[in-house]
Amino acid sequence: MFLQPLIDAVEPVSSTVQMPAAMSEGAESIDWLFYGIYWFSVVFIVGITGAMLYFVWKYRRRPGVSAAPTKDHTGLELFWTILPLGMCVVMFHVSYKTYITNAIAAENSMEIRVRGQRWSWSFQYPNGESEPTQLWLPIGKPIRLIMSSSDVLHSFYVPAFRLKKDTVPGMYSQIAFTPNKLGDAQIYCAEYCGAGAAEGSGGHYSMLGQVKIVTAEEFEKHMKEISKMPDGMTPDKWGQELYVKNNCATCHSVDGSAGTGPTFKGVYGRKETLTTGQQVEVDDNYIRESILRPQAKIVKGFETGNMPPFVFTDEKIEALIAYLKTVK
Amino acid sequence: MATVATHQTGGHAHDPNELDYLAAKGFKSWALTLDHKRIGIMYLVAVLMSFALGGVLALLVRLELFTTGHTIMSAAQYNKVFTMHGVVMVFLFIIPSIPAAMGNIFLPIMLGTKDVAFPKLNLASFYIYCFGACFGLYALLHGGVDTGWTFYTPYSSKFSETPVIPMIFAAFVMGFSSILTGVNFIATVHKMRAPGLNWRRLPLFVWSMYATSIIQVLATPVLAITLFLLIFERAFGLGIFDPSMGGDPVLFQHFFWFYSHPAVYIMIVPGMGVVSELICTFSRRAPFGYMFIAMSSLGLALLGFLVWGHHLFVAGMSEYATMVFSGLTFLVGIPSGVKVFNWVTTLYKGSISLESPMLYGLGFIFLFTIGGLTGLFLAMLAVDVHLHDTYFVVAHFHYVMVGGTVIAFIGGLHYWWPKFTGKMYNERMAQVAFGLVFVGFNVTFLTQFVLGSRGMPRRYYDYLPEFQSLHQVSTMGSWLLGAGFLVMLVMFIQSLTSGKKAPRNPWGSAALEWQTPTPIPFHNFLEQPVITRGPYDYHLATEEELAHD
Amino acid sequence: MTDTAVAVPGDAHDHAHDHAHPDYLAHHFDTPQQQFDAAKIGMWSFLVQEILFFSGVFVAYGVFRSWYPETFSAAAQQLNRPMGATNTVVLLFSSLTAALAVRSSALGKQKETTRWLILTIACAFIFLTVKYFEYAHKFEGGLLPGKYFHPHAAHLVAGSPVLPANSHVFFSIYFMATGIHGIHVLVGIGVFLWILKRNLRGDFKQYNAGVDMAALYWHLVDLVWIYLFPLLYLID
After folding, report:
1. What are the Cα distances from residue B80, in Å, to A49, A208, B56, B77?
2. From C12, C48, C173, residue closest to B528, measured CB to CB
3. A157 contacts B455? CB cut-off 8 A
4. C134 touches chain B (CB under 8 A)
5. How far is residue B10's CA from residue C12's CA, in Å, rounded to a whole number?
6. Where are the beta strands (DSSP E) in A178-302?
7. How many CB pairs under 8 A join A and B?
8. Is the pLDDT reported for residue C9 higher than 80?
9. Which chain B residues contact residue A197 at CB under 8 A?
10. Distance between terminal CA atoms of chain B?
C-alpha cells in the first residue's frame, strides 16, 4: 500500500500529549489515522474561523455602506459538497481497511478467554489456568481474546493497543492484536456497569487491570507459577492471597460488616438459611458449590447479590476453604 | 411595499387585550390559554428551570472529579448524579428547548398566521410534558436513577436498584409531548401560511422547525415502544433484552439508538435554524445558498435515521454492519458542512454588526465546527475503537449539544427577547456573559478530548492520578461557564423588571416577525399580512420596515 | 388541494363578518376547507407515528422468530385460531361500519350515523370480550410472559407440540403486541363514544371532520390486527 512508507516514517510509538505509548502492531496504524484526521481538522477549523473573523472585520457595519445583495453560485455549492464527500470516502476507506486488518486474528494466535464481572477481570490461559486482573502476554505473539461477561455489559479496553470491545453476557466477542513492546499496559472497563452501594466497594471505575507484556520465557515461567501455590506458602495464606486478588472483599467482608454478600467472619461451619427456607451448614461442599455455581444456593437476604461463578481449580478452592476456616 | 400593518388602522376601537398578548392577567389566562405565544413562554420557563437543574447536576459531577477518590460524594451517588444530569438535560431541556419554546412563539408569526393548526393540542402537549416531568421528579426525589441516560440492559432491567420504571415512564410520557408538537407544526407549515408565502419564501428557521417535526414524528414513537418494552422487561422479566432469559442486550441498544440518533438531529437542526436567522439579520444579507441550507435540514432528517449503528461499533455487531454504518455516518456530516460554508459565505460583503445575538451566532459556527469534525474521528471505525466510551465522546457531544444547540438557544433568546417581552436587556452584561460562557465552555471541554484520547473512560467516579491536572482544569472551566449563566440570569431578570422598552425592530431585520408591532398583538398581526417578498430580501424591504429606533 | 391558504382579508376579530365564520370553524382558520385539510394532515402524521410505535414490537417479533423458529411454531399452537379469526372478522366489519358512518355524516344523515357508530363501538366491545376469554385461558394454562411462564400440561391444547424451554419469549411478544393493540382498541372505544355524543348533539350536520378522523384512527387499529393475526396465530 502506498501509505506504508508514510506509516513507517511516522513514529508515534512513545507517548505524546494526546496518545499513550503504542504497544501493539495495530496501534501504530491507528495513530497514523488519528493524527491524519487531527491535522485535517486543525486546518479546517483554522480555515473556517479565519475566514469568518476576516469577513466580520472586513465587512463590519459602516455608515453609508450597505450589504451587497446575495448572489447564488451553484458551482461553489457543488464544489463544497462534492469535495468533502470525496474526502469522506477516502477517510472511510482508509479507516475501514485498518479496522478489518486489525480485526482478523492471525492463524497461529494464542487464544485467551476474558471474563468481565462486577467489578474485575479474569483471564483464562490456554493451559486452563485462570488469573484475575493481570493479563500476561508473550511479546511478538499474535493474541486472540475471546470475551464474555457474567452479569451486565462491560467493555475490555486497552488504550496502549487502541483496542476495545464490549463483553456481552450470553455471547462471545473477540479482539485480535500482537503486542510488540515490553512493559505494562493499562486495562479499563469502558462500559458503565454500576457500583457497590457501600462506600469503597468498587464499581465501573475500579474495574482495572494490567496487561503485562513479557518475554516468552517469562511468560512460560508465569504460567507455571499461577497453577500452583507459591513456594513457601501454606494453603490458608494462599487462600487469603486469592481472596485479595480476586476482589472477593468487594462483597464479602472479613470483619463482620454488612455487604452485598454474607460476611466471611466465622462463616466456616455457620448455619445459614437459604432463600428456599432450607437450612444448610457452610461446609467444604457448600463453599465449593458457591464458588463454582453461586446461584445454586443463595442465603436469604442476599437475593440481589448476583455473584458470578469463578472458574477455580480444586487446589485453589481447597486453599480458599483453608483460609475461610481461619477467618473468625 | 408595506405588507404588514404596523399600527392600528380603521375606525374600530380595539380591545387592549387584542393589542398586547400579555395584557390579560390572572392564573387562568395562562393555565387555560390557547395562545401559542403564552404556551411557548410556559415551555420556556419549564426548560430554563430544567436547564438550571441539569446545570447544577453538571457542576456537582465536575466538582466530584476535581480530585481522585472521594471528593464530595460516594460512587453510588456519583452514578446517580451523572445519570440524572443526562436525563434532565436530554429529555426535560434540550429536546423541547428550541421547538417548544421558540418554535411555539414564533412559528405562526413567521408564517403570517394567527396560531398553530391545533391550539388545544398545543396546550395538551405542554401539560403532557409537565405530567411526564412529574414522574422524573418523583424518581429524582427517590434518590435518582443510576443507569446512565442510555438505560442499557441488563443493568437497567435486572441489576439497578433505583427507581428506573418511574424515570423511564417520565421519558415515555414526555415523548408524546414531542410527537404532538411535531404533528402540530407539520400541519401548520403545510396549511396555514399567509397569502403569498410560498415554500421559497419561508424563513430558514421555519424549514428547520419543519424538518425537526418530521424527525420528532417518525423517531420518538420508537423510543416510546423501546421504553415501554423496557418497563415490562424490568417489571415482568419479559426476557427480550435479558440474556439469562434468551434475550439480547444488543437488541436493546439497536432499539434505543434508532430513536436516539435522530434525536440528536432534533436537538441540532432547530439550533441551525436559529443561527441562519442570526447570521442573516446581523449581516443584513440574504443567506448564500438558501435552498441548499433548507434542503440540508431535510437531508439531515433523512440521513439521521440511517446511522444509529455507529453507537454500536464495539458492541458486538457484525463487521459488515459496522462498515455500512461507518460509511453512512460520513455521509451525514456533509449537510452540516454545507451549512457552515454557506453561513460563512453569507458574511461576505455583508454589513455586519456584533450585537450579542450575533456573538452567539458566530460562536456557534466555531464550536459546532469543532464538534462536527470530532464526529469524523468517531465515524472512522479504527479510530472509534480507541475513542468509544472515553472522554473524547463526552467532549464531542458537549461541543455539538452545548456549543451547538445551547449556544443557538441562548442566541435566539437574546435575539427574540425584545419581541416577545417588549423589553431590552443590558448589552454590556450580555457581552460579559457571552465571554464567560464561551471561554468557560472551551476550557471545560477542550481538555476532555485529550483525556479521552489518552484513554480515560466515561462515567468514571475515580481515575488514575495521571489524569488529575486535566480534570482540574476542566472543573475550573465549569465554574466559569456557570458564572456566565448566572450573569445572564441576572441580566434577563433585570430586563423584565426595569428594562428599556423595546422598539418594534431593534436589529433592523427584514424578517416578518419584526414587522408586526411590539408588544405582539393577540392575533399576531393587526391585519392579515400578504407576503410579497422573502424574509431576507433586504434590497426589497422599505426603510420603514427596517427602521430600528 | 392547493398548498396556499385562501385567506379572508380583513380584521380577524371584526364581528360584523360573523356569517363567514360558521360555528364549527375554529377562530384561527380562515375557511372550513383549510380546517379540514389541516385536520387530515395532522391525523395522518399521527397515524404514521403509530405505525412506527408498533414497528418496535414487529421488529422484536422478527428478530426472535428468526432466531427461534421452532419455538415460535410450537408456542403459536397454543393460541386459539377460531377466536383470533372471529376477532379479525369483527374488526374488519367494524372498519366497514366506521367508513359508513363517515359517509352518512358527510351526507348529513344524523340518525344513520348514530346507528353506524353504535355498531362500530359494539364490535370493539366484542373484540375486547373475545380477547378477555383468550387471556383468561392463557392465565389458566400458565402461559404468561417472561418470568411468570409456567405451563400446566393439563391446560395446554390437546395434541400440541411440546413447548421448548424458551417459549416464554413468544408469549412475552404475544402479550406485548396484543396488549398494546388492545389498549388502542380501548382508546378507540373512548374516541367513538365521544364522537357518538357529539353526533347526538348535532355537531356533524354540516362538517364531519371528527367522524372522519376517528374512522382513520380505527382503520389503523384494524390494519395492525390484520398483520398481528397471521404472524401470531397462523405460523407453523
Report:
1. 38, 21, 13, 5
2. C12
3. yes
4. no
5. 13
6. 183-189, 209-214, 271-273, 279-281
7. 269
8. no
9. 76, 161
10. 20
Does domain C64-233 fall under CATH 1.20.120.80? My reply is yes
pLDDT digits (tens, 9 = 90+) for A93-117: 999 999 999 888 888 899 999 999 9
Does the N-terminal peptide bond of residue A230 adopt cis geometry, omega within 30 degrees of 0? no
ipTM metric: 0.93
Cβ A122 vs Cβ A115: under 8 Å:
yes
Residue C82 burial (10 A CB sphere; 0-12, 13-18, 19+): exposed
Are B523 and C12 a contacting pair, CB within 8 Å? yes
C-alpha cell at B507: 436589529
Cβ-based contacts of B345 with chain A (< 8 Å) = 76
Mean pLDDT of B395-418: 98
- The stretch B281-303 carries a mean pLDDT of 96
Domains and CATH numbers, chain B: 28-546 (1.20.210.10)
Residue C41 has its nearest CB partner, among B121, B191, B248, at B191
Query: Counting every residue, how long is chain A?
Result: 328
| Domains of chain A, earliest start first | 4-60+72-103 (1.10.287.90), 110-227 (2.60.40.420), 235-326 (1.10.760.10)
Of C45, C49, C148, the CB nearest to B236: C148
pLDDT tens-digit series, residues B352-363: 999 999 999 999
Q: Do chains A and C touch (3 or more CB pairs under 8 A)?
A: no
User: Measured between beta carbons, which residues in chain C are less than 8 angstroms from residue B21?
Assistant: none
Mean pLDDT of all residues belonging to chain C: 89
B-A interface (Cβ pairs under 8 Å ≥ 3): yes
E strands, chain A, are 110-117, 120-124, 130-132, 134-138, 143-149, 154-158, 163-167, 173-177, 183-189, 209-214, 271-273, 279-281
As a whole number, mean pLDDT of residues B89-115 equals 97
pTM of the shown model = 0.91
Q: Does C69 touch chain B (CB under 8 A)?
A: no
Average pLDDT of span B364-372 = 97
Q: What is the distance between the alpha carbons of residues B53 and B283, in angstroms, rounded to a whole number?
A: 36
- Chain B residue nearest residue A173, CA to CA: B316
Q: What is the pLDDT of residues A175-220, one digit of tens each?
A: 999 999 999 999 999 999 999 887 778 899 999 999 999 999 999 9
Residue type, B89: M
Shortest CB distance from C45 goes to which of B187, B255, B528?
Answer: B187
B243: chain C residues, CB-CB within 8 Å = none
Where residue B452 falls among pLDDT bands split at 50, 70, 90? very high
Check CB contact under 8 Å for A191 and B152: yes
Partner residue facing B217 (CB), from C7, C48, C180: C48
